[in-house]
Amino acid sequence: MMEQKDVQDLVDHALKVASAKGDAVVQARDVLEHQIRISNSEIDIFKQWNYTVFDVFIAIEGKIGTTEIFSPTPKLIDEEISRLVKLIQSLQPTPLYSGLQEDLKPPTKVDKLYDKRIRDFPNQAPDVVAAALNAAQEAGAKRTAGSFFFSETYNLVETTKGFSGDYPESAYRMTLRSFVDPESSGQGLAVGRRISTAEKDIVQAGQEAGEIALQAVGGKQGKAGVYDLVLHPTVAASILGSLVESANPLLLMMGMSPLKDKLGEKLGPDSLSVWDDGRKPNGLGSAPFDVEGTPTQKSPIFQNGTLQGIIHNTSTAKMNQAKTTGNCSIARFGIGSKMFVPSPSNLVFEPGDASFEELLEPNRPTIYITSNWYLRYTSRLEGSFSTIPRDGMFLIENGEIGQSIQKLRISDNILRMVANIEALGKSPRQIRWWEVETPTFIPFVRIKDAKMTAATQ
Amino acid sequence: MTFHDLVQHGVQFGDAQGADYIELRYVQSVVEGYSTRNGEIISAGTTETAGIGIRALANGGIGFVSTARLKKEEIERAVKTAIGLAQTSKRKTPLVLSEEPTVQTRWEVPVKIPFADVSSETKLNRVFEVDKTLTSTFNSDTLPFRLVILALETSKKLITNNEGTQVESDYSLGRYLAMLTAKGNKDIEQRMISRGSTGGWEWFADPQFIQNFVDEAQDAKSVADNAKAMTFDKPVDFIVGPEVAGIISHENCGHPSEADRIQGREGMNAGESFWMDIDVGTTRVGSPAVTVIDDPTIPKSGGFYLYDDEGVQARPRYLIKEGIANEMFHDRLSAGRVGVKSNGSSRATNYNREPIPRMANTYIAPGDYSKEELVEDIKFGIYMKSFTEWNIDDRRYQSKYVGSYARLIRDGEVTDTFVRRPVLELTSRGLFDAVDACSKGFTADQAICGKSDPSQGIPVWTAGPDAMRLRAIRVGGVPT
Predict the structure, then answer these.
(1) Do B258 and B324 fall within a single domain?
(2) What chain A residue is nearest to B65 in terms of C-alpha separation?
(3) If you write DSSP's letter for every residue of A272-296 in order, what string do you get?
(4) Residue B103 pLDDT class (50, 70, 90 cuts)
């Protein structure tokens, strides 16, 4: 990684060059990241990425553009900004920009963003992987696959409105998938920033993957129909999180959200309260400030089932007569370009008071789903969608996990499912993996009357 | 040092450090993007990257390091680190690469009008032209949301390894993605479209570029105006168009025939494959009417390449031949595991990603019939030209395709009755067994195929004949 002073000097240079043209933001990330990929209970590849990247945003008379500069040097910065300015001058003003944050306030203090033990972790990581694989095997797995990322990042943001802030962060995320046979599998995951507890969490993830895989053995073809569902936090984050993520002005204005014109409407039960919380301790989406320098905050999206708010940056807040929620980001959009738009930080669901056992109690046909993938919408405006359970899926029989079942699909509507939330568990987990990109703190959730379909031939 | 010197030095340095295999892949890439929403620009920018991806095989393990700091000392550090990471893997089953001929060559995508020679005003005006045409042909109440994204990608690549292979290439791909929302008398229909071609700006300059949007918007409007929900108590015949046949070829055949999935290497993320349970070369996975080919060498295609990212020459792969599983996608790593040769399937999205087995241009092979001949033989059925939602399980066996533009077929003719969102919810075997004929013709859609972790969205074509007929399908999507 670079010396922080060198990053600072380069960012100062970039901002000076950019500020001669208009409003500007420079976001620097100096990253050392590793990944270990695993299959058949062995390490397939051990990777390292060591890079410095600047995202530069410039606004000139309402016209905006971004560029991404890897391995910046003063010469490269000059060239890239010159090219960006030329591009911006050829464009037309955009409705998505109306100025940067000017009311600067001290950054939010966020606990547990950085653990210095990340420095030694690359040497320890293969042993941690071995311990997790061992735990999976002891729990019943015949073979285990996995993906283990861990990283250290130094972040620095400066704006032409006078904001300058920096912070280091550490992060890890391990996903493990155990198999007893090709059709009997289970997943476990461990996500966080604190390296001191990482090994314990990761070993536990291995154990959970192995246990679910073993329980899944002997799975029978599930029968299509209407069931109550008990969703593992991994599944709840994917399905319910997809609705909360769509409380985003960009998605609303593009016709890609079922929440259009629903602000203030009661869409779920009283037990449903969800925040976008950019300062959640240990959250992988946490940060002290956004790219405009606005302190991050805890913003209500749903309160007692009512759609209470959407996330904003300064510009979208002005468009909607609202206040920024500290969610401004320079986010990838489409292919090749980035946008200066609000992005979610951590989605935090208010836990309920039900134990896992209590969620299984109601005497109605019920399925427990431990993982899912491939969620696709038929219509993003309507919210009709389907997604495929994978890994262990079980019928609930007499209030307990019963027969393992397979090959069913949730084919429903997200608004109907949210309205049908019956209970939330009391122990939330942080979910972030391949299928869930926004870190989501969510417990087990029970949803009534969900539609399950199956292949017809 | 030039990038040629850097990669050459890196290979020699890695060889001297004791790597069993060392490969350096330099990629310089420029991606331009222009996005409009309802005729207003919402995003524009360029991402330019240049770096080297290093893959080392040592002590039976593989290490991968990428760097964008193009200095001799940094390349030496990165090579040493890659070898060190490989050694710490401590595998019980050593990894080996298949033996392949070494090659020194270069290839390029033929380009008439380079993207760099076209001003950004011209590029953006072409996107504005799309919106102007749409709003003048229809109106903004009929199409309340119109999102158009233009992406132009060029790259220069040099692949070298310590076996003596050196492949240099120049690549250029233009594509667009659009989402049109049509509001009709009965419903709202959202239509996602994606097309692309290797080459230069000439592809966008073609009048057909704009016409495609008009045709797609008309289809979406027709659906929103006319589609009626129907239930089907008995099995019906289906004719599917090239868009549907193309996605089927990709999802139900292409993905399950990727050797790394079959060997379990994608077990965590993209998943494994039902092809794990069959004998490739003898097992029937569909009717004799089904042949699925993947061919990276089709000129102008969206998945075009002549040498893969391990320097192996590309060739057509016959994945299913007349219903029999015939061939899987191999890179040198998956081929080495089972003692066969690579078929040139190794692809990486950029210098900072490892190359893995990927599709290129996957399609259902055309037959000898006309589309009309296939329809003639249907007493009662559904013509499903396009699809909206789709998904498939991670063993690539339980698939679902929801129809978008779909019309009823009666007594050998496609009627004016639109069917609202008919669902093909079928196993891969159930689907391919039901195919009894394919028509002539070949139409391709550009797609971004997602796989691996970190995800590598790679450009591919999915394609099919004008019509593919499936007999006696029980329409899905309804809980019973």
Answers:
(1) yes
(2) A48
(3) --EEEETT-TT-TT--SB-TTSPBP
(4) very high
